[in-house]
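User: Run a structure prediction on this.
Assistant: Running it now.
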Amino acid sequence: MQGNFDKCLVEVLKHEGGYVNHPADPGGMTNLGVTKATYEDWVGHPVSEQVMRNLNISHVRALYFVRYWKVVKGDDLPVGLDLCVFDFAVNAGPRRAIKYLQMMVGAKPDGQIGPTTLKQMQQYIRTHGHAHPIDRYQAMRNAYYQKLRTFKTFGRGWLRRVAAVTVNAHRMLKEAQWPKN
């Protein structure tokens, strides 16, 4: 659905929170879900810890749109599934999020969404409806997280996040299908 980015970003940022620098997190220094390395690459120069601590939505909105939403072709994904794929892209990388979508719909998992992936996704939705892909994709995410070496440290949070995103994805789908007058 065109224009769902801002709604999805609000949902993603509920889980990303503020500044963290957990020693067990391979991402290191992070704020609003953006690692220091990602932000430095985005702005084209090194940044200090203070800059990272001071990030706000206005600093990262365009980064999320260009580096995550556009890469996963959020505007071409069905409502609800767009949130799931976008959230996974933010949390585990766009290529991984795309590969999981491709595996779900039976497309070649190359990490890039093109016409074939979109066609197979549309067929998958025709076959299974709009709600099933949300649940299936989120189950695949849960399985991915459970295999990570850092699951013992971060797993409960990841599974809570997936559960909350699933609920919100279904809510968004219901609102899109049954708009309130």
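DSSP finds nine helices and two strands in the chain.
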